[in-house]
Amino acid sequence: MRGSVVLVIATASLSLVACSPPAADKAADKAPAAAAASGHTAEQTRNLATFDDLDFNVYSGQKWAEFSRSHAENIVVHYPDGTTTTGLPAHIEGLKPQFVFAPDTRIKEHPIKLADGDYTAVQGIMEGTFTQPMDLGDGKVIQPTGKAFKLPMLTVGRWENGVMVEEWLYWDNQAFMKQIGLAP
Questions:
Q1: Regarding predicted confidence, which is higher, 16 or 109?
Q2: What domains, with CATH codes, occur in the chain?
Q3: pLDDT at 7 over 50
Q4: What is the pLDDT of residue 39?
Q5: Are strands 163-171 and 71-78 parallel, antiparallel or unpaired?
Q6: Which of 67, 157, 54, 76 is nearest to 114 (CA)?
Q7: Please, is 17 exposed, middle or buried when counting C-beta atoms within 10 Å of its C-beta (0-12, 13-18, 19+)?
Q8: Alpha-carbon span 125 to 108, nearest angstrom
Q9: Whose CA is closest to 98, among 58, 65, 130?
Q10: Which of 52, 86, 92, 117 is the most exposed place for a label (fewest CB within 10 A)?
Q11: How confident is the model at residue 175, as a pLDDT?
Q12: Which residues, 6 or more positions from 31, have their beta carbon under 8 angstroms from its beta carbon?
């Protein structure tokens, strides 16, 4: 119970911080030492390091075959729009379209990283540029605006045996649409 309360408070804090300007790039470099110094267990520190590799290397590099290093085969993923996928293949298929209309999508910094029990909460800064057509399905396509985006996002993960078995993703879709020129 204590862990759940701490995680809820941490997630709320991260949500507030997600609206703030990102910290300097040096924060990501200091995070592993800070995690160890903050009293995290070896397993929590390992999970946070795995998550760094996931975002900085695997996701940003579109190395879909390597997602199994951080995600369980039957992972349940909850998205900001309220949808949920079950299974790693479905999650990966949900991520791929981002790279079609914004092939330079990347996450290169984690200003905030927390762990409590089997949970991690990590703020990332997602960046990219809307340079290719966005396929909406049913023959509908939005032409690229050439506009860049940079927005904070939050991932809460529940870990078992070194991989996430459940993941909650949060970002502001309205801010994203404004930045790429699709909303006023």
A1: 109
A2: 2-179 (3.10.450.50)
A3: no
A4: 86
A5: parallel
A6: 157
A7: middle
A8: 7
A9: 130
A10: 86
A11: 97
A12: 48, 52, 110, 113
DSSP string, 17-31: HHTSPPPPTHHHHHH
The per-residue pLDDT for range 10-39, each reduced to its tens digit, is 444 444 334 444 443 444 455 455 555 668
Q: Which amino acid is at 4?
A: S
Mean per-residue pLDDT for 130-142? 95
Helices and strands (H, E) in the chain, number of each type:
5, 9
List b or e across 25-56, with b for residues whose CB sees 16 or more CB atoms inside 10 angstroms: eebbeebeeebeeeebeeebbebbebbbebbb
Dist CA 7 CA 179 (whole Å): 30
Q: In whole angstroms, give the CA distance from residue 167 to residue 183.
A: 28
Place of tokens 């949920």: 84
Identity of the residue numbered 80: P
Identify the helix (H) or strand (E) that includes residue 51: helix 42-53
Check: CB of residue 88 under 8 Å from CB of residue 67. yes
> Is residue 149 within 8 Å of 179, Cβ to Cβ?
yes
Q: Residue 151: what residue type?
A: L
DSSP-assigned letter for residue 65: G
CA distance 76 to 166: 5
